[in-house]
Structure formats: structure tokens, C-alpha cells
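The following block was generated as part of the benchmark described in Methods. Ligand: beta-D-glucopyranose.
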Amino acid sequence: MFADLEGKAVVITGASTGLGQAMAVRFGKEKAKVVINYYKNEQEALDTKKMVEEAGGEAIIFQADVTKEEEVISLVQSSIKEFGRLDIMINNAGMENAVPSHELSLADWNKVMDTNLTGAFLGCREALKHFVENDIQGNIINMSSVHEMIPWPTFVHYAASKGGMKLMTETLALEYAPKKIRVNAIGPGAMNTPINAEKFSDPKQRADVESMIPMGYIGKPEEVAAAAVWLASSESSYVTGHTLFVDGGMTQYPAFMAGRG
Ligand code: BGC
């Protein structure tokens, strides 16, 4: 438990499912106030709200498409209107789809970039504006991926969006460090979330991915949520511009395990 998170307000994009939902619930356990952003599925958002409240937090749901500037502005404002504050912004909404790069349409490229990178930028910008104007030592966490450093064939748009997110995180960290506003990222590996449900329901594909994870198992969303509350808390007060990989060792060149090479 991180005592200083009690009563703080956090906006989490894409929080009605997957990693976003796990983070919302964990912030609930920390007795924080959570804005659960969702894109389409109101019922999932309401279910998440109930889970946050049962965990001990407060929550509201807020529909917004992170690719739309006006909607991100309203989303960030909803925390200030409803809870009277915003302390932590988590840019988590993201998407991916596999397409051979020579066949990738501009529309598909733009959709992934707009959601994963531009959407995260808009969330950062709106939160920073609030922090700077009100002299708040706020905290931003961007949901990146192991693919901010590992190339990923047929996911060029996704990998490019996460690579962009890495330098966006580092640049903003540097720019706002004098104001004690911290900007970090989390780089999950293969996690048990809806985005991967289809892939991991096939035992062969699951075993194939597990073979690339030195710790030998697909991660649990709660393991990412634990990293998020630490990064959001004052326990990580001297950490900024960092990507915390939560990946069971996936980024440590598993091909070289057991002395190969
Ligand atoms: C992707 C997952 C993938 C994992 C490891 C994540 O960023 O969302 O689909 O399994 O990286 O490759």
C-alpha cells in the first residue's frame, strides 16, 4: 500500500478492461479517486466502477475517444469537476493489429498512431497544462510496451507508436523535471488481457510466446498495476523519464538463455 495515494485523483484511459481495469482497481485499493475512461463499452466501465468501489476507492466513468482532442480535454476536466483535483494521468488506451507492412493501409497506420501515440500525447498535454497552471507536482504514466525496444514484424505501426512513446516520455520528463512533474512509462510484455485473448486461447501460440519469456509465464494485469501504483507514489520520487519493463525478462534477449550464443 502507498499511503500518499489516498484521496489522489487519477485519470486512466482505456480503463474498462485489461491493464487499465487492473490499474483502476489497484488505485481503488489505495483509496484513490479514479476516472475510468472508456471508448465504447459502457457496461464494462460500470463493472469496473463497481470493482473500484468494492476495493475501497471512488470512481466515475467517462466516455471519450482519445484520438479526439476535444474529448481528451473534457476527460481531463471531468476529474477536476468531479473530484476537485487531478494528480495522476495514465495514458493506457491502445490497440494493435497484425498486417504485413507492405500491405498496411494509411488508414490502419493512422488509426494505431492516433490512438497509441497522439492520444497519449493529448493526455500528457492536458494533464501538464493543469499541473503547470496550478503548481502541482503531478505524475504521468504512459503505457508503452516491450516493443518500444523490440522490433515486431507485421506490427510496424504498433512498434513505431511505442518507440515514439519512449522518446515522448523522456522528452516530457526532461522538460518538466524542474517543476518536479514526473513522466514515466511502463513496458509490459505478454500479458493475460483481452487484447491477447484470441492469441493465447490457442495452446500452440501460447506455448510459443511463453518460450520467449525467461520467467516462463504470461504476465498478470495485477503485476502491471503494482508497477503503476509504485510509479505514481512518492516511493518513486526520484524516478523520471524511465520505462519500467514488466515482462518476465522478455527484453533480456531470451534467445541467449542457457549460455547459447
Ligand atoms: C502486445 C502483446 C504482445 C506483447 C509481447 C505487447 O505490447 O500488446 O500483444 O504479446 O507485447 O510481444
